[in-house]
Amino acid sequence: MTRILRPLAVLALLLSGAAAADPNWFERFKASAEPDEMYRFLYAMPKGGDLHNHITGSVLSEWYYEEGLAAAQNGYRYFTKVRIDNCQYTPGPGPVSYYLLYRTMTAVEHAALSECEQGEYKPLAELSDDERKRWLNSIRLDKVFEGRNEFFESHWSRIGSLGSNPFLVAEIIVRNMKAFGAEGLMYLEAQVPLFGFKSPTGEPIEPQAVLEIYQRRVQQPDAVASGVTVRFQVSLLRFLPNAEQALEVMYKLAAANEQLVAVNMVGREDNDKGYPLRFLSTLRKLRQKHHSVKLSIHAGEVDEPNEHVRDTLLLGADRIDHGVNLITDPDTLLLFRHGPYLVEINLISNLLLEYVSEYTQHPFPEYLRIGVPVALSTDDRGMWDSTMTDEFYVAVTEFNLSWDEVKQLSHNSLKYSFLEEPAKAALIKEWQQRIERFEAVAMNEGTAAVATETPQYRGFICGRYKICAPDPSAPPQTEPAAGAAAGGAR
User: Fold this and answer.
1) How far apart are CA 57 and CA 191, in angstroms?
2) Looking at the DSSP assignment, which residues form a beta bridge with residue 150?
3) I want to staple 96 with a disulfide (CB 3.0 to 4.6 A). Which of 157, 260, 310, 363 is the partner?
4) Three-class SS of residue 184?
């Protein structure tokens, strides 16, 4: 159960000046803490927000499976490819390889296949235990030989039509809200798809209708009880042939809907068809017609020097997603010192997608310690099988963060969010109150007094740092109770 602090006791701790009396408490804790102690502490710690979250990539694989089955209540049935019978002797060109196993599609798409190809698929609901295990593993980036090509070219294709069901996407938004709320997060700014959605019988669903489905779901009591405030960014796949036309539609949609707080250009940057300056003239035209649309754009997610970060600023971006190679562009790096631009740092993503081969290569501590505003975020956490606590654990243990630096990361994630005023000011005030209570209890009663909840131990933290659930045979916690973060030191 969450620890409940009596208000008068908390006030006495704060007024006693104990918070200022022991400035080195966190350094001593780091020096003595076992890995699981540190992890439990960071799990319980009140956190700010996740500003870089691809919602369809932030789905734990068992969530996808469960929601794929539950989608039957809305008329959706799914099939997945379990074998190859060589039905295509000369597979033609296309976005998805014929030889890709565990690709998932709707019943309508399955019915359109040849009889031979239909036999290669099974209903998702009828997978054997072994097939289910393979299906779950097929959308996790959990093997040492996997990297960005597996992620970009296979994972998204396997998810396939699961991502074109707006009711399913709405459910995984809420599942993320609940899980984030359980580990102390207060805000989620999710990058959501709005285009390409279809009904169970294959008819297109308009973007505005998709957005309304999301909005209705996040307003339901169980979502509200998570304690997480949510806003959306709409994502543009930057290297598509019609990307400029799609940008115009998205920009207009964002200008007309308060829940859509930004437009984001996504997609691997080593595909030069999506280079930033391609969109400069389109954005300048759009800004003549529309107001109140923010930009948070992927830039610098490459392992080679280029000027994409600089060019993204020229597009009008307020925040930069990743910024790994910003350190190779000194003039632009100077522009980032002390704001107004934030760099969204994705430590786990950058390692698993091989933009750094080890954390000593990551520029995060340089940015943090020369005054570049940074915040930790999770990117496609479902595919990494990770949590926001994992990001903080990596940051603290790999880069020896001070307590002030830990707090600054959460504060930045709220300060630089696109949440509207005065809701932003209220959220920052609430976080400050929570972190002060947490700090006072940790210093005066010990860190064990705040780390009273069982964390969500996921695959990344277990595989890399050997911090695992006490009983490996038990399934990991995937659905925290609604409102778990509502009380206690948070």
Assistant:
1) 10
2) none
3) 157
4) coil
